[in-house]
What we know:
This protein is mostly helical. The protein has a single domain, classed as Winged helix-like DNA-binding domain superfamily/Winged helix DNA-binding domain (Arc Repressor Mutant, subunit A), CATH 1.10.10. 42% of the residues lie in helices and 7% in strands. The chain has 4 helices and 2 strands, in the order ββαααα. Strands 1-2 form a two-stranded antiparallel ribbon. 14% of the residues are buried.
Amino acid sequence: MFLKKTPGPRTAVLPDGTILTLADLPPAETRWVARRKAIVVAAVQHGLLMREDAIERYGLTGEEFDAWTRAFARHGRNALKITQLQKFRQL
């Protein structure tokens, strides 16, 4: 797949050893599942995508993206599942 030149890194090595590239990001019009949310959060955390670019590209609010980031950092990918929202929500 051809990727146009972008500022910043083009790949990132995640803690589990997998390589994340811009081509791995979900399409802008996507059905959100925990795996896709985790990919976007990891891309921002590892510098592949700027937070503001992710918010604009996916039509998210800053608050929504920050909630994904907090949930992923505290509890991992399972916390991003809609069915697990009540279990991992902070009181």
